[in-house]
TrEMBL record:
Cellular compartment(s): Cell membrane
Record's keyword annotation contains Hydrolase: no
UniProt name for this protein: MFS transporter
Record has S-adenosyl-L-methionine as a keyword: no
Topology relative to the membrane: Multi-pass membrane protein
Residues that span the membrane, as ranges: 38-61, 73-93, 105-124, 130-152, 164-186, 192-211, 246-265, 277-298, 310-332, 338-356, 368-390, 396-415
Length: 563
């Protein structure tokens, strides 16, 4: 059974904490923390097995003389569950023990891998059953991914999260450089079934590492959110959060064009003179090697250029590489283009991931990462289908060149959509605040709207400052759970202004308070500083009569004739 938890930053600021080692933040500094180090090593083995299996799976479909669309459907089957389910599993990851959520999804993935292996040894694995099996494994991946991404902050201190995200990307790309070569060698020497069996053993090592990862779970103040409630909260946060909106937009556009690289690479290798599984493995290895080399420059490039410019430059270079792959048939051009493509790929994705990790509060982090994953994998799934279809009509080279042109156009169109730069991450820690009693007698805390009014006394010379502060105050309330917000001037009392916002229920109002970060508190403190008088602003909380009726067992349905 899943155990409710809250993020480390939900602890009160004065809670005792174990002394942490003082380390200089660098790319390798997360390895000083045992939990991250052990999981990283086990994940490397798991990724090696996954990439070895991907070579065998893609080659089975390619050698079965399947259509380009069928080849591209492997990418669609792998990406679609992540698009459809990530936000739902993100709610679980934000409300329950992320370790147990990961273990649940990993066991589903392992079961799918065992199923593919059994089919392969029985000689029953063909393109349709392979795509169906990949789809089932991707369902487990959809459970794991939001919890995995958000759990990085539980393995290392916040200051090292950016480096940990980059190291996880390096892990993935080291495996992408080596795993396909292993898969290609085993595929040629022993056959596809043994490659699938290797993947099962490699993935078992990661399950073991997560199983033995133990840490203290802080006590959660409020009950976990329901699935629908959690999804609504995430969408409301995204609507009023610049970080998640811009990342989702740009990552979807990037994935839509860049997906051609992964969807059509098996066909590019197969069409080449002397094309073989080994050549496909070498091509994937070149992508991985490029990503490893590129990862060393990501931190310095981001510090020099900023996140937005780094993403634009990397995506623009990837567009040029796609054009080169499409227009040039020589391996002397293809392999350098693949090396550069790998570096550009990790530069874009690591920057997006780190931006969400560092600029989103813990209470919604898994859901924000899930929405980012939904956007990027939505682009990959739609793009893989689209480029697979185009490859059947205009050829693989033509589809790759068209993808490069489309990516270049999107980079130019979205250049002005700026990503927020990193701020002081401590400002996203939970702010301690006075909380109304949860056991509110006389009404139902789950139903019936709550109307909150805050009365300020504002002197005339501070009126412009209040108007300027209204916008961030509005975003704060709506982002954290308010349904409506307004600032009113009292026409009968000089200098009196009322901030009024509506919340769905008393429980949602308590969640708003619990979600308050230090950055949010700074916005409130700025508004409160404009208030005149020796006493703080007057706050009134009003509960709908519907909560009273439900608490007393009255029927909420009335005969229309009685109204």
């Amino acid at each position: 059974m899943l155990q409710p938890v809250s993020a480390t930053n939900d602890l009160p600021p004065d809670a005792p904490a174990a002394p942490a080692p003082v380390l200089r933040v660098s790319t390798l500094s997360p390895f000083a923390f045992p939990a991250f180090r052990i999981i990283w090593i086990a994940n490397l083995f798991a990724n090696l097995g996954t990439w070895a299996q991907s070579v065998a799976a893609a080659w089975i479909i390619t050698t079965e003389q399947s259509s380009p669309l069928m080849v591209a459907m492997i990418q669609v089957a792998a990406a679609f569950p992540l698009v459809a389910l990530s936000i739902l599993t993100g709610v679980l990851a934000d409300n329950y023990d992320r370790r147990k959520v990961m273990l649940t999804g990993m066991l589903l993935e392992l079961a799918g891998g065992v199923f593919i292996t059994v089919l392969a040894f029985a000689g029953l694995l063909h393109p349709i059953t392979l795509i169906a099996s990949v789809f089932c494994i991707a369902i487990g991946s959809a459970v794991v991914t939001p919890a995995w991404q958000a759990a990085v902050g539980e393995q290392v201190p916040r200051a090292h999260v950016g480096s940990a995200v980059l190291l996880n990307s390096v892990n993935f790309n080291v495996a992408r450089a080596v795993g396909p070569a292993i898969g290609g060698l085993l595929l040629g020497a022993m056959g596809a079934p043994w490659v699938f069996l290797l993947n099962c053993f490699c993935y078992g090592s990661l399950i073991w590492a997560i199983w033995r990862w133990k840490r203290d779970l802080p006590v959660r103040r409020l009950p976990p959110e329901g699935i629908f409630e959690g999804v609504v909260a995430a969408l409301r946060y995204t609507q009023h959060s610049t970080v998640t909106r811009v990342v989702m937009l740009r990552s979807f556009a990037f994935g839509l064009s860049a997906s051609a690289l992964w969807a059509l690479l098996p066909l590019l290798a197969h069409e080449h003179e002397g094309g073989s599984a080994l050549l496909y493995g070498y091509m994937l290895g070149a992508l991985g090697l490029g990503a490893i080399v590129g990862s060393a420059a990501v931190r310095r490039a981001q510090a020099a250029w900023g996140a937005s410019r780094l993403v634009s430059v990397a995506a623009g270079l990837l567009a040029a590489c796609l054009l080169a792959l499409g227009l040039a048939g020589s391996l002397w051009i293809a392999f350098p283009a693949l090396l550069l493509s790998g570096g550009c790929w990790i530069g874009v994705l690591a920057t997006y991931n780190t931006t969400v990790q560092m600029l989103v509060p813990d209470w919604v982090k898994a859901r924000a990462l899930a929405l980012y994953q939904t956007a990027i994998f939505g682009g990959l799934a739609a793009g893989s289908f689209m480029w697979g279809h185009f490859a059947g009509t205009m050829g693989v080279s033509g589809a790759l060149a068209a993808a490069g042109i489309m990516l270049g156009i999107t980079v130019a169109l979205l250049y002005r959509s700026r990503l927020p730069e990193h701020v002081d991450t401590q400002s996203l820690a939970r702010a301690d605040s006075a909380e109304p009693a949860l056991a509110a007698a006389g009404f139902n805390t789950q139903h019936g709207a709550v109307l909150v009014a805050v009365e300020y006394q504002i002197e005339r010379d501070k009126l412009s400052a209040l108007i300027q502060a209204a916008h961030p105050l509005r975003l704060l309330r709506l982002r954290n759970g308010a349904q409506q917000w307004q600032l009113f001037r009292d026409l009968e009392r000089e200098g009196v202004w009322r901030e009024v916002f509506l919340v769905e229920s008393w429980m949602q109002y308590l969640r708003m308070i619990d979600r308050m970060t230090l950055a949010d508190k700074m916005v409130l403190d700025k508004v409160h500083a404009l208030h005149a008088g020796g006493k703080p602003p007057v706050v009134s909380r009003n509960v709908s009569y519907l909560a009273m009726n439900e608490a007393q067992g009255f029927s909420l349905r009335r005969d229309p004739e009685s109204l």
